[in-house]
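Intended use. Records like the one below are meant for learning the mapping from a protein sequence to its folded structure. Do not use them to infer anything beyond what is encoded.
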Amino acid sequence: MLINTEKGREIFDAVKDRLDYFQTTTDKVMQTHLREPSKIHPQAKEFEEYYAKYGFEPTMKHFGFIGWRYKIKGLKKIMVSIIRKFIRNA
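Structure written out for the chain above:
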């Protein structure tokens, strides 16, 4: 929880006895994306152009988010999981 105002401090002080909390610095808890911009995916421009030209569903199929490619990726994850369990129990 970040306290940014005096009113926020007053509210926190009123309820802090009922909370588990610890004090820290923003440097220790700040997420990477809050400190610096995220990196643009290498295919971002291609994705946007394809989407503008063909629309949602063809783009999702082309980039593998739906359709048979997506299903194969899911199946592969399941198979790898099963094989790993089998190897561990052997």
